[in-house]
Specification:
369 residues; single chain; Arc Repressor Mutant, subunit A; nine-stranded mixed β-sheet; 47% helix; alpha/beta; DNA polymerase, domain 1; 18 helices; three-stranded antiparallel β-sheet
């Protein structure tokens, strides 16, 4: 049994910890196992960590439940992803309330170059089905990863369309991996595991209770480059997901519909209130996301005659072997002030060395490294 994973799961289970305080404990103690080895007195000195939480940590009762989960993971081929693991979704990692632990079954790269979320009503109409199918087919040439929630309606159509056109697709669940909900999507989920995957933050035996789904929505919003709201009433899970995506600085798109159609009211409202870009085809998404912007030739030319300053070299070194990184990584990885970093990034962007992406992320252009 993987001892490190055991303690990581146990930490998540500690009553009163939560994702934010859990990360704080890791930062202070240096690791999950170190948290459980820390003295009571030292734990009480950590800001935001109360006496009840410390009592739960010291008692170590959560280790028994963590051992049970480890056995489930090993039996069912589940991959536990701690927020510091290299395979953890990096886009989600930079969200302050991202889950400390995810449980994943599948083979899709959760850090694919292009990730699109598609969400909407459970009461999908024929119009919605046709539009989702059309847009997914158009996106097939971009080799995107499609993320949705494996619910009835729009989610189901999005996953099926992705598989139909050869795209990897991942469903984010509001329950444990011991079941598939709704049960009608069981076969679809099995197909997705072969070409994509299913993902959750919930332990096995967790039922699909109502309060779990808003938590699921934040994972969908955090994992993507952009979110497409296909059909939605004025209120519902898709509108909540759109609000979360906006709070994470993700680009949001809404597919417009006819005035008076109940399940177009939400999409039209998002556009009207400037909380989403109107989307009529994949071309609109590509334009806003700058996927059509070919910087390859420019970058190669820049490499021939561009001398990089010491500050620019510092920023470029942070990329390492990665093509896309978050602004926070640059701040942590350099000795520059945020103001200086902003100036350097702007200069590099003007010269075609890096490209700014939604969500405070930057992509190094082909031919530079």
């Amino acid at each position: 049994m993987d001892r490190q994973k055991l303690y990581e799961i146990a930490l998540v289970l500690v009553q009163g910890v939560g994702d934010v305080n859990g990360k704080k404990l890791i930062a202070y103690c240096g690791g999950a196992e170190a948290v459980f080895c820390e003295s009571r007195r030292s734990l009480l000195k950590i800001p935001g960590i109360g006496e009840n939480t410390v009592n739960c940590i010291v008692s170590q009762h959560t280790l028994l439940r963590a051992e049970k989960e480890m056995r489930f993971i090993e039996r069912n081929g589940v991959q536990p992803l701690f927020y510091l693991d290299k395979d953890y979704p990096k886009r989600l990692q930079h969200c302050h309330d991202s889950p400390m632990m995810l449980y994943y079954k599948g083979n899709a790269d959760l850090n694919a170059e292009k990730v699109v979320g598609i969400v909407g009503t459970r009461n999908v109409t024929d119009y919605g089905r046709n539009v989702i199918d059309k847009i997914t087919q158009e996106l097939s040439s971009d080799n995107v990863l499609i993320i949705s929630g494996l619910a009835y309606g729009v989610d189901t159509v999005a996953h099926r369309s992705a598989l139909k056109y050869g795209l990897a697709t991942v469903g984010v669940l509001g329950h444990g991996l011991q079941i598939i909900y709704p049960a009608e999507n069981y076969k679809l989920a099995q197909n997705m595991i072969e070409k994509g995957g299913i993902l959750t933050e919930f332990l096995s035996d967790t039922k699909p209770d109502r309060e779990n789904f808003p938590k699921r929505n934040r994972i969908v919003a955090g994992m993507v480059d952009c979110l497409v709201v296909a059909e939605s009433a004025l209120k519902g899970g898709a509108m909540i997901t759109a609000d979360i995506a906006n709070s994470y600085d993700r680009e949001v798109f809404a597919i417009p519909g006819r005035m008076g159609d109940t399940y177009s009211e939400g999409c039209n409202h998002l556009v009207k209130t400037n909380r989403a870009d109107m989307m009529e085809s994949a071309a609109d998404l590509r334009y806003i996301m700058r996927w059509d912007h070919d910087t390859k030739v420019v970058a190669k030319q820049m490499r021939l005659f561009r001398d990089f300053s010491d500050d620019e070299k510092q920023v470029l070194d942070v990329f390492g072997n990665e093509r896309v990184i978050h602004l926070d990584q640059i701040i942590v990885g350099t000795e520059l002030t945020p103001t200086k970093i902003a100036s350097v990034l702007l200069s590099l962007e003007f010269d075609g060395i890096v490209t700014a992406l939604p969500g405070k992320r930057y992509q190094i252009c082909d031919g530079i490294k």
